[in-house]
Predict the structure.
Amino acid sequence: GESVGLHLPTLSVQEGDNSIINCAYSNSASDYFIWYKQESGKGPQFIIDIRSNMDKRQGQRVTVLLNKTVKHLSLQIAATQPGDSAVYFCAEIPLSNDYKLSFGAGTTVTVRA
Amino acid sequence: NAGVTQTPKFQVLKTGQSMTLQCAQDMNHNSMYWYRQDPGMGLRLIYYSASEGTTDKGEVPNGYNVSRLNKREFSLRLESAAPSQTSVYFCASSKVTATYGYTFGSGTRLTVV
């Protein structure tokens, strides 16, 4: 069935280091993937997206990599800052219904000073 | 712009009571969504409305009803609250499909005792 999951529920990173957050998905028919950031007490915020016909996309300090062979998605954050402390979710849009987003369980990132 | 506004922010209900969660967006978006977020489970879709006048079930619709009052407003009703409905509820909107990106509200924290 459709599911999106993250490899690790928590990640602790030293300020200034790069962060890598991983996500495995099971629906090979998904066409579109999105990473969201959720700070405490707030709703999720869009970070970056990638279509299934791409394997890499870069934004400001963030890069998303998509490996369709092993159904793996990752979010890389360069030079992690204290403001990057949050819960990160990967989400997919199934081809069967492009109104729906299916979310993974999330990874909590804590940045150490 | 206010974006997506949810009311109330917090609510405590007794088992069996009813209430309506309100959501309004000012971005002229066509689609609106209700999600619930439980610890360790990510966000799960309850109902969505692809356009004014239409509503559809998501993953976890049991115990809920929705109304798309107009293009701006999408309400979620709990007719007889149960402790299992204790959760954080998020409303979101998108211009058309989820590929246009969701904008989330800040959430309603509901406790049913």
In short: Chain B touches chain A at residues 4, 31, 33, 35, 40-45, 48, 50, 56, 58, 90, 92, 94, 97-99, 101-102, 104-107 (CB under 8 Å).
